[in-house]
Amino acid sequence: MSREKVPEYFFRKEYEQLGFEAINLKYFYTKHSIDERTKPHRLKFYALIYITKGRDTHIIDFTPHTFKEGSLIFVSKNQVHAWGKKNEIEGYIIFFTEAFLYKNQIQFNDLSYSYPYNYNLYSPILQIKGEALKAFNQFFELIYNEYNHSIKVNQEELLQCLLRVLILKIQDSIPSLLNNASKEVETLFVEFQKQLDQNISLTRNAQDYCDMLNVSYHELNKTVKILTNKTIKAFIDGFIILQAKRLLADPTNNASEVSYSLGFKEPTNFSKFFKKHTGISPKLFSERLISV
Questions:
Q1: What SS3 string covers the chain?
Q2: pTM
Q3: pLDDT confidence of 228, banded at 50, 70, 90?
């Protein structure tokens, strides 16, 4: 059975130069059919979703997450995600590019590796409760109104500042890292993530990454265990499986191409690796996406 390519969404041309949109969820739901919303798709930018009414499930990187009033949902660039089937959901979506946020915002240059967008360390859902609900409701409404109704000369700079404040406010709610890990431990882990992103097609060997980071196997293994409860090898294996799933979500990539892009010399070795960790073959995984 043929399968359509998992859609990739870039910024619409008319908004690309700014790199920012603030949309009411009611409007979003009227503009995108239930079939369009519930099919897995990939964003090439960041999304920050805030729920003010309703309950449903949001699937991020093939894992379902439930949300309700007061939920903040974080979707990082290149993640595959899909909406649930319910229509009575209200709130806001903020879409933004790295370029929009990074302009004059040096401290956010590692957004994908920090809270709330580091999916290896943190849940993509943050639940806002109590008195904070009112504050977040008002802040999202302010951003929405400034974007949609403001004609100020300094609108771009104003929106950048508002988004910066919003992210800083969210980061004030950062959950404690596992076992109260130190900043040094987190820093080493982030550097490890960066090396994986850059070199996974070249090597899956744990010692190679220790050498790249100029640390001992013991030190890196201890760091990864503290933050993820996994060994270096187990974490690398999980990283490869997620990248494989993302690539297999695009039917223009066959299993052989995916295997080579992830550093496997033989497609059969990749298939065995994938089945060992997921219980199904790469082909079956791809076919099951048809019915998602």
A1: CCCCCCCEECCCHHHHCCCEEEEEHHHHHHHCCHHHHHCCEEECCEEEEEEEECCEEEEECCEEEEECCCEEEEECCCCEEECCCCCCCEEEEEEECHHHHHCCCHHHCCHHHCCCCCCCCCCCEEECCCCHHHHHHHHHHHHHHHHHHCCCCCHHHHHHHHHHHHHHHHHCCCCCCHHHCCHHHHHHHHHHHHHHHHHCCCCCCHHHHHHHHCCCHHHHHHHHHHHHCCCHHHHHHHHHHHHHHHHHCCCCCCHHHHHHHCCCCCHHHHHHHHHHHHCCCHHHHHHHHHHC
A2: 0.87
A3: very high
